[in-house]
Amino acid sequence: MPRRPLVLLTTTLLLLVGVAPALADDPWTVPSPATITITGDGSGHGKGLSQYGAYGAARQGLTAQQILDFYYPGTHAGSAGGTITVLISGDRDADLVVEDRDGLEVRAVRSGKVFALTEKAARTWRVKQTGGKSLVAYRASGTSPWHTVRTISGDAELTAGGKPVTLRSPVGARAYRGALRSTHHDGRRVTVNVLPLEAYVRGVVPSEVAASRWPQQALRAQAVAARTYAAYERAHTANPDYDLCDTAACQAYGGATAEYPTSDAAVTATAHRVLTYQGGLAFAQFSASNGGYTVAGQFPYLPAQPDPYEGTSPDYYGWTATVTDAQIEQAYNIEQLTDLQINTRDGKGPRGGRVETVLLTTAKGDTYSVTGESFRRNLGLRSTLFEITDVQPG
């Protein structure tokens, strides 16, 4: 989920005029070239449920409901179902290709007509779109020619009556429940998985946490959070082509291939359960680790508060990252960085709290203020709960 990809944000630069530092760290002189070491805690934005905190809470004996009550105070139980549409980000080439299997069918999205794909010689099937039509073809081997068996007006999708269909994409083979639809988004062909919400959550939970090691109550809390997040996104999207993506920019989703018995059990135990607030779906944000203190979100049920269930882990606490002066200069479109300073923190949690602003000073004497979140994203840091611990030439 909302652990967003690195984004170039040159437009976030603001020329600093008379800003008084508060909770400022000592400034660092930056030679050219320079290697800058950054140390921090936590992973992700820190809002809502902490996956590592839920793990710790479950190990201390808390139930899934108690975990959800702590991370989303003031929310209530609700129900959600229906279908959801998910962009399969690894399959954006010219066609949709799946492995043959029993029960395979193609459905014309526009008309709703369904046609069985029963060619005995077929090993793979393809939907290739051209001129507003979908050409459905098969081939008997990886080197044989494609044989077109049907032409469909508009988009088409492949399904096997609820049984998993294996997609072959540039990133490898992966099975998905529901239907695999070949459509267009922003002028390019994409693959969208259309499936029941419950089947989708089965592919999310083990993609977000280690289902083989996570306590059952933590898995159940994750299932409710993931289902709620998906239902909220579905209800609020303005995108006509799909509801959400399959990466951490939304929430990780691995299809039927990712499913695992313990996470399946958690999804079944919490079937259709979501979180609501004042009669509507809650925005159930979550991240890997809040570093010991949650971050306030945009709603009252996402407060900033100490997290007693977080702990110490080499994965989430005391992580280090190295960046160069050239990387910072490129990220913010500046020249000759000479000084670097964490200027303000929120004062909540370890290391003085999360970084709110960072000052960048250039050889020309210009000083710019960028947000801690912008600095994190542009430089690929795990969280905004960090400090600069060393600057070395070279």
TrEMBL record:
InterPro entries attached to this UniProt entry: Bact_Sporulation_Assoc, SpoIID/LytB, SpoIID/LytB_N
Coiled coil start-end: none
GO cellular component: outer membrane-bounded periplasmic space
Domain (Sporulation stage II protein D amidase enhancer LytB N-terminal) ranges: 188-277
GO BP, sorted A to Z: sporulation resulting in formation of a cellular spore
UniProt keyword list: Signal
Signal peptide: 1-24
Pfam families noted in UniProt: SpoIID
NCBIfam families, sorted: SpoIID_LytB
Name used for this protein in its record: SpoIID/LytB domain protein
